[in-house]
Amino acid sequence: MFDDSDPRKALTSMAKERSFSGPFCGPEVGDFSQEPPQLTGDGWQAWMMRCTNLVVRLVRLEGAATFARRGQLDEYMVFSTDADVRFDIETAKGTVSDHPGNHLFVVPPGDSTVTVRGTGLVSFLYTTRSADLVAQCANPEIPANPNIPPFQQWPDPEGGFRLRAYDLDVPEEPGRFGRIFRCTTMMVNVLPRFPAPRDAAKVSPHYHASFEQVSLTLEGDFEHFLRWPWTSDMAEWLPDMHVRCASPSVTVLPPPAIHTTLWTSEATQIVDIFSPPRMDFSTKDGWVLNAADYPLARTEIE
Question: Burial letters for 253-281: b for 16+ Cβ neighbours within 10 Å, e otherwise?
Answer without folding.
Answer: bbbbbbbbbbbeeeebbbbbbbbbbbbbb
